[in-house]
Each structure stands twice: as C-alpha cells, then as structure tokens.
Write a structure and sequence with these properties.
The chain is 46% helix and 23% strand. By secondary structure, the protein is an alpha+beta fold.
Length: 681
Amino acid sequence: MLRNFVEKLAKEHFGSNEASWSPEVKLFMVDMISRCDSFPAQFISYRTEAAVQHLLHEEGHPASAAWVEELETVGHRFKALLENNEDGLMLFTAESMIIYQNEVVDRVSGYNLKDRRGRPGYSFIHKEDQSSACELWNEVLNAPNKAFHFQFRLRARNRKYIWIEGVLTNRMADENIAAIVANFRDISKRKEAEQALTESEKKYRELFETMQDGVYKSSHQGRFLEVNPALVKMLGYDSKEELIAIDIKKDLYFEESERDHAIKQDIEGEIAMFRLKKKDGSEIWVEDRGQYIYDEKGNTLYHEGVLRDVTKRVTAEIRLRESMKETADYQQALDQSLIVSATDKNGIIRYANKNLCTVSGYTKDELVGNSHRILNSHYHSKEYMEKMWTTILAGNVWRGELRDKKKNGDIFWIDSTIVQFKNEYGKPYLFLAIAVDITEQKEMMEELSDRYTELEKINKELDRFVYSVTHDLRAPLSSMLGVLEIAADDNKDEEMSEHISLLVDSVKKLDGFIKDILDYSKNARTEVKGEVIDFTDIINSITKELKYMGEGYMTPEFHFSLNDSSSLKTDRVRLNIILSNLVSNAIRYQNTIDRNPEVRIRVDVDAEGCTFCVSDNGIGITQENQDRIFDMFYRVSEQSAGSGLGLYIVKEAVDKLNGTIELESELGVGSTFTVWIPQIL
C-alpha cells in the first residue's frame, strides 16, 4: 500500500522515533498520509511539500536523490489526480475559513485561494441560502465524520451564481486532516434544465387548467386518469373526481358501437368526430385529437387527447344539409308546379327550369344566354314594362301578369312574382321570377267576362221587369182593395161579406209578396249609400205604417228607447227594410190569448256603429226552427203568415252593411232579434 511505502521512507530518512520528528516532517507526513487515505476526498498542501523540499535540500537532511525523486513522483501523481478531478475540493477551519481549494474550485468560481484568504466560506453563498448553510454548518460541527449532503448557490467572480451539490464532512478529529472537508460538483446546467422543466411543467399545467378545450388521459380499460376543468364543464359534471369515477364506455356513449368507431379513428390517426352523452343525458358533439401511448414492447399504456366542443358547428352543418335538402325539395316542387327563371340585370336569362321550357316550347339551351325578348309578345305597353324594371331595380318585389309568346307563336299568360338578389356590395346581380301558367284561367276569364256582360244585360232587363211589376201590379192591387172596401161597406149579405173579406186578405198577401220582392231587389241591386240616420223619424214612420196590419191582429203597445251618444251613418233604405220586417214579424206572430201584445225597440249608437234590438212577447220559435229562419222561402208551418222572404231579406241587408244578426227565442215567451251594423265612413 502507498501509505506503508510513505511511512517506511519517512522512518528510513527521519528516524524511527516519530516523537522526535521536527514539526515540518510531521506536517509533511500528515499531508502525504492524508493523500493516501482520503483521495480524492481530501487535500494536498503544496506549501507543506515545498517546506519539506527546502528542509531536505537546504538543511542537509540525509535524503538520497532516489528517495527525493520517488517522493516527488508520488506527490506529482496525486496532485495531477486531484487537480484533474471533476469535483471541487475545499478545506475549512471550524470558523468556516478556507484553507485549501483545488483548481476545479478556481476554475468554477473564478476565485483562487489567495482571493478567499481571511474570508469565511458562507460569505460566498447566496443570501437566500446562507441561513440554511449556517444551520448545516452547525450540524456538521456537532457530528464528526458524518457526511451531510447540500445544495447551495455559490457566487462566482463574474457576480453570477452557480449551483453546487456535494458532501460536507467534519474531519477535525482526524489528526491527519483536522479540517471540515467539502466535496462538490457544479450542477448549474442540471439546475437550469430542472428550472426549465419546472417552468415547462408549470406552463403545461396552467395551459392544462385554463384551456377552453377538454384535455384528458384515459386508461385502456375505459377510465379517466386525468381531466382538465374545461372537460368537466363540457360534459356537465360537478368536479374532476366525479368525472374520473365514471365508466367511459357506459356513461359517455349512447351506443357501444360509437366508441368502437371513435377508437378506430384514433388508431388510424384521423381527427375523430363523434357524439358523447353529458351527465344530464343531452347530446354533445366533439372533435377528438388523440393518440395511444405504448411501452417499448408495444403494450398500450394510456390514451391522451384533446376534445373540442363542435356541437354548434355540427348542428349548423346538419341544419345546412337539411336546408340544402329542403331547398332541393323546394326546387323540385317548384319545378313540378311553377315556372322559374333567373335573369341578370341586363335581362339575359341565366336559368330556366323544365316548366318554362315546356310552356314556351324552347329548350333550355335556347333560353339560357338569350334576352327575355325571345318571349316578348309586344302586348304590354312600354310604360308597363318600365314600371316593372323600376320596381325590381329599386329592390322591391314586383307582382303582375305577363303575356308571352311561345316558340310556335302561340300566346301564353303567366302570373309572375319577381324578386331581386344582391351581392356582398349591395348591388343587384340577379332577378328570380316565379310564375304560374294562367293561360287557361285567362281564357276562362275572357269567357266569364263575356257572360258577365250578358248577365249585366239580363239584370238590367230584370230590374226593369221588377220595377214594372212592383209599380204596374201594385197600382191595380191598390185599386182592387179600394173597390173591395167600398163593396164591403155597401154589402148587407153576410155570406158576400165573408167572401169579400177573404178576397181582401188575398190581395193584401199578394201586395205584401210584391213588396218583399221589391225590397229584395233594392237590397241586391243598389249600391250602399251612407247618410246620417234619424232613428226617431224611422221608428215613428214604421210603427205608424204597421199599427193596423189588418183584421185579426191587435195593435201592439210600442216601447222605443234610444241611446244616441253618437250619430249613425248608414244606408237608410236597408236600415228601413231591416226594422220594418222585424217589427212586422213581431206583430204578425203575437200571442193574443195569454197577454196583450208588446213590441220593444232599443237602439244604442256609438262611434263604431249601432246595436238595436227588436223584442216581442209573441208565440216564440222552437229551437229546431231557429237555425233555418233566415233561409229563403222558409216558413215554420203551412199556416205561417207571410211569403217566407222577410227574414231572408233582413239577413241579406245586414250582410250588405257588413253587420251581424242574432236571435234569442223561447216558445210561448217571445223573441228578440239583435242587430249590429258598423258606421259607414
């Protein structure tokens, strides 16, 4: 051993009695032995070695040249080993004063031993680490020979700090060392890498926690290993723990086949898109950028990926597809039933559907690219066509009829609607025309027009006939009634009086029927004319005229009330027809057996119109007959008086005035007719 060799040389040249060795020799031996025992953890004192060399050569010690050469070789060898070691080596006194450092320390810190002389070691430690360094130093002082690991930042000469990691050992009790020994290594690069890794992990964690997309890591068995808050929120769960606890296959997919399809997309490296089931059972569509992570043997470790909520996009795409299909369906429907064409702002046809080709007799190729003049029949005036173009160029919808010409020269009519399409700059670029072939209707209208002209002629002749009947017939009837009344007064024969009475009733009935015909004609053929109404005058006139309707009818007691908060403007003739018929019916169907007949007329006028009621205490009308009393020629029974036209004419007159009429009646109690008619503005 090297130690034995050093001790043997010392005894041969300095004597076998160690106690008699000079201080220089003892110091040299401590130095050399420590090199043998503690390399590379301890130090070599070159000052001591230099002192021994001086002692040997200058003071004449009996050392042989070979011994000195051997000793120098050993020293240089240890020196080279220590100085070329990667670890820094420092020796401290108990007071933390530096008494030795190797060249590694010089190189790393930029300070040599001379620079550090007289300064405690902690003064070169970063201020933030000094407290923990002092605590460690006290522990080292109190624990001889125990190694303490440390990490500190050491100030370098360039005022930067380097990280060192090493072992601090108290070797004060070892007489060969008698110092605190520090062995350390520069770990600045490792620390920088760790710091960079920490920063990277921090940024990753921040990104993981704050990403709007859902991030996950899941096991091959279908459990989440890690999820970020965005995924928890996206899937509608309350916490990470709740989401991690679910069974992915069971709780996130509507059907197992959907998960199998998603896995297949991930394995094939595609961007997978599929739907998931949220906690509340609702549907969410996601886009998955995921991958499987394998070990060196190809076994699946886990699956990781990013889920993006694309529900809105998918919904929009679905709606777009539905809209496109709907549009295609609309187009198909239009093509089957309507004539559709598109024209640019210059009047050039850009699209023509099958119906237009069928109706016009032109092929699509003949129409598209041509001006609409190809269909022009030159029927419409220049002003008519200019108005059409002015309307659609202004962005308004034009609706109208057009007479066009077929390829074979025949005419066809279309009822067309034209709308304008604008580009992104708000300029018109296309006009869409949707039309219906109305050729057949136009032909029918022409035929109807001819018939209408003919009917107008017939109606005028009928008006003249009605006028003739009502005037030419009623005049003789009035004369007959006068003669019959004279005959009745002069006749003393009871049988003849009875016959004359029957004849008078027949003449009156015929006169009433002619009057009804006249009222119907007036209502049907005269225009509605508005004038301010004096209800008192009308009611007085009607009651006076109908007070004595003839033999067999008792004169009723009339009650009239008027609330005229506003004046009424309506057609006087039709109002008179309505009131006259209702009052005459109230008298005609009176109940003279149980009670005295009464007729009540109540009128309420306001700004919107007039409501008037005609009530009686007559025989009433059964429920089954009430629904038919306004029918033409309807009579409750064969014994009913009148022609069956009265209430029909009343209903027609009310309709002409845009009013309403209602009936309330009870058999044996009486009837009430309520009429509302609006103001004529």
